[in-house]
Design goal:
3-stranded antiparallel sheet; 3 domains; Receptor-associated Protein; mainly alpha
């Protein structure tokens, strides 16, 4: 029976090596898995000698043989695939459940990799599995996909690995990303209804100006009567839209493109974030969402054993608003190991006194995680309330705006008709 040389990982992650007898390589792999090992490499006896000769720089005939480097995924190929937030949430929950059931990390990732989803998740999970089998830690493997796994995700996984509580760290991450996803969906749902009203109202007005008004204009021109001022204004607007509408649309698209590019620059992004914090009602939604995210992220990191300065650095990167991120950066520079966080945050002008006071109470009682949880819940409720206020106000405002535009067209047409009919009666 052939003899196979193997290298594998045990359940506790230790690297083991030895020999095993099996009919073929597949049977050898099955024996190793039955013994609770994750195979790294399995080589038949004769192949071992050839491999050793190649490793020493000589082939079977004693000639020097050029060593071939293993193929690695390039940085470009690593960054090409990206998982959506929902996919990351699903992956985190499933991996945590498999680890909590007693399955080893390598076997858990191998199980997830066998689920073909035809998405970027397949490529990423397979790469994570391969990296773990080759001896890398999960946090190191996650670092190969920076566009999918944030610094927050990697730091919490690293802390979970150091404390031996990786399943608990993944569970906290799952809860964190569920709340982040819920907050995003709340804001998106609040904007869907106003966007539909604006789209339908704008489309109706454009249709009326381009197709309906010109027909009445031709009738009015044949009658040769002097038209009222509102009617003349409406006809002029219709002419402008009909003659220059395509140019206006092109200018709008080009302007939107350059505006979007400008927002990607540091100055443009900061201007936009600062504007959001000054607009009525909008600033309440943006700030409440940012403060809830700050408290939830910082609490998750500190609970998982991440150092204060490192946690603040990660929160700064994931703040989502450049102005608030700069405030966290200045607070982090004023914080030293052992000092409080509430004082430096209160010294700025962004974080409200209620937040810093609640944080100070948590520092005094030694329950920072609990205080941050209360802060996050408090601003989650404020976010819900501000979104309801926004939708309640925008609905009648948009309705009145649409009614004014449609009414202007209708009144302009009726005034012209009344003038013409009165002239005919005379």
């Amino acid at each position: 029976m052939p003899n196979f040389r193997y290298t594998a990982r045990s359940k506790d992650g230790q690297k083991v090596a030895g020999n095993i007898e099996a009919n073929d390589k597949r049977n050898a792999l099955m024996q190793l898995e039955r013994n609770g090992l994750v195979p790294v490499s399995v080589t038949e006896g004769k192949a071992v000698k050839a491999k050793a000769a190649a490793k020493g720089g000589k082939d079977a005939k004693g000639k020097t043989k050029k060593k071939k480097l293993p193929m690695k995924l390039t940085h470009h190929s690593i960054r090409k695939a990206r998982m959506k937030l929902r996919d990351v949430l699903l992956f985190t929950g499933e991996l945590g459940d498999l680890l909590s059931s007693g399955m080893t990390l390598g076997n858990a990732l191998n199980t997830l990799s066998r689920r073909k989803t035809d998405k970027a998740q397949d490529e990423i999970v397979e790469d994570l599995r391969d990296e773990i089998i080759q001896g890398a830690s999960l946090s190191e493997a996650l670092g190969r996909w920076p566009e999918t796994f944030s610094a927050l995700f990697i730091s919490m996984v690293r802390a979970g690995e150091a404390s031996g509580a990786l399943p608990h760290a993944l569970e906290r991450l799952r809860i964190h990303y569920e709340r982040v996803s819920e907050a995003r969906e709340k804001v998106a749902m609040a904007l869907i209804y106003p966007a539909i009203i604006l789209l339908m109202g704008g489309g109706t007005m454009i249709f009326a100006m381009v197709f309906v008004v010109p027909r009445f204009t031709a009738i009015f021109a044949e009658l040769g009567s002097k038209l009222p001022l509102p009617t003349r204004i409406m006809i002029k607007m219709s002419d402008i839209l009909g003659n220059y509408g395509l140019y206006m649309l092109a200018a709008l698209i080009v302007g939107g493109y350059f505006f979007k590019r400008a927002l990607k620059t540091p100055k443009g992004r900061r201007w936009w974030d600062a504007l959001q914090l000054k607009l009525p009602i909008v600033h309440s939604i943006v700030s409440a969402n940012a403060f809830a995210h700050f408290a939830r992220t910082l609490g998750a990191l500190l609970t998982n054993g991440v150092a204060v300065l490192q946690a603040l650095s990660i929160v700064e990167e994931t703040a989502g608003n450049q102005v608030i991120a700069e405030e966290i950066h200045m607070a982090r520079e004023r914080v030293t190991d052992g000092s409080t966080i509430s004082g430096p945050l209160a010294a700025g002008r962004i974080f409200p006194p209620l937040l810093t006071d609640m944080l100070a109470v948590g520092e005094q009682t030694g329950d920072m995680a609990g205080a941050l949880e209360h802060i996050a819940n408090r601003y989650d409720k404020e976010l819900d309330r501000n979104i309801k206020i926004l939708t309640t106000l925008m609905e009648p405002i948009l309705m009145v705006g649409m009614a004014v535009m449609v009414g202007f067209v209708a009144i302009s047409m009726l005034l012209a008709v009344f003038d013409l009919t009165s002239g005919l009666n005379v």
